[in-house]
Amino acid sequence: MTVDAMTGERSDPDLVAALADGDRSALAELHARHAPWLILRLSRRCADPNVVDEVVQDTFVAVWKGAHRWKGDGEVAAWVWGIGIRRLLDALRRRPRAELVLTGADEAALGLAESAEERVLLGVEYGELGPALDRLSPELRAVVQATVLDGLTSREAGRLLGIPSGTVKTRMMRAKAQLREALA
Amino acid sequence: MSAEPTAWHADTATLSRYARDDLAPAAAASVEAHLLACARCRAGVAAAVPAPRLDAIWAAVAEAVDSPRMTLTEHLLVRLRVPDHTARLLAATPSLTTAWLLSVTVALVFALLAAQSGPRGVLVFLALAPVLPVAGVAVAYGRDTDPTYDVALAAPYSAFRLVLLRTAAVLLTTMALVGLAALLLPAAPAVAGAWLLPALALTGTTLALSVRVRAPAAAGAVVALWLGAVFAAVGATGSPYAAFGAVGQTACLAALLISIAFLSGLHRQAAFDLRRES
Hints:
- The complex is a heterodimer of chains A (184) and B (278).
- By secondary structure, chain A is mainly α.
- Chain A is built from nine helices and no strands.
- Chain B has helices at residues 12-19, 25-37, 39-46, 51-66, 72-79, 84-91, 98-115, 119-128, 131-139, 149-154, 159-183, 189-192, 196-209, 215-237, 246-269.
- At the A-B interface, α2, α3, α4, α5 and α6 of A face α2, α3 and α4 of B.
């Protein structure tokens, strides 16, 4: 067990392992650590705070029930995000589209799960890729975000954005072409 | 690795701009990527979410995690649009469990087997049939048998409404089983249906009596009275169905109506308090 020598706190993986043994306090701790950023990140993809709260609830209940399914490698945060974004998709599917307001520029708010992409993007703000991404139209940025960075399939991305999965693929191709051109 | 994810940290200003949704898309992407890998910066944005919002979410999570799994009966009731607290109280009725329904079924099978031997056997069935719902009602509510006894005490229900609710549910299921079995009786329909009114009368009387005495005691007294009457009638007339003739049925109807009148009178006074304590 990894316990921080300074604070005596358990690590995220240890907390998830404790969940599998029915440790409620571990769930409370994980919630305290991960609910805030999850709320903020989901809020950039869905403007209705009620939906976001419901999705965050569902996510932590799923974390509790599915703790044994965590493979034990990688970041717990990335695992939580993977559950959260799919719960959001489920929630969006249950509601009529009209109720949803995807926040304009925030449709393009980017995020990523893979550490390789992450390392690339850590320099995004000050490199050439950042401005290039910012110059993409909101529609194209949204597709890049959903597929490349949020790790969704074309179908899932289409559901999130309310467009057919074929459109997701063609927009992705156009986005790649524009980025390549901007960076050439 | 040249770019260790944790070597870089988003500064406080960037984090609060992210939380306010005030960053250019690429910069926001950068922050989100970093947050997945960095506990320190995750803690840094946490303050941007109001504590009451987090508390409300946690309360809902804790409730979902703590609530026991729904039983099959409960699922079914919820599907049928029964409110979920009602469904829980109903599903927890001891005499609605599979075990109870199974024992009712076994009793009916034996009574049916006995009925094959002739009128005396049919009499066994007819005498037993009204006893089953009474037994079900007797164990449907009380400290000894009810796992939700404490919950039921604290429920936003009058004891009266709960008793009626459960009695209705028990009557429905038990009488459905008895009714199915009665179809297999080797007797004329008039005879095969003769248990119906006595069943209702005995249940009603038990319910009325349980205002004063505990339900199992009330049920015991009613059943003893019933069986005594049935066999006394047989002894007096020599006919096996003596207790199920016009006189018997009329007496049952009278008992049923009296207990209904008594119970609805109580309901109106809102003075019903089941004797649950010893």
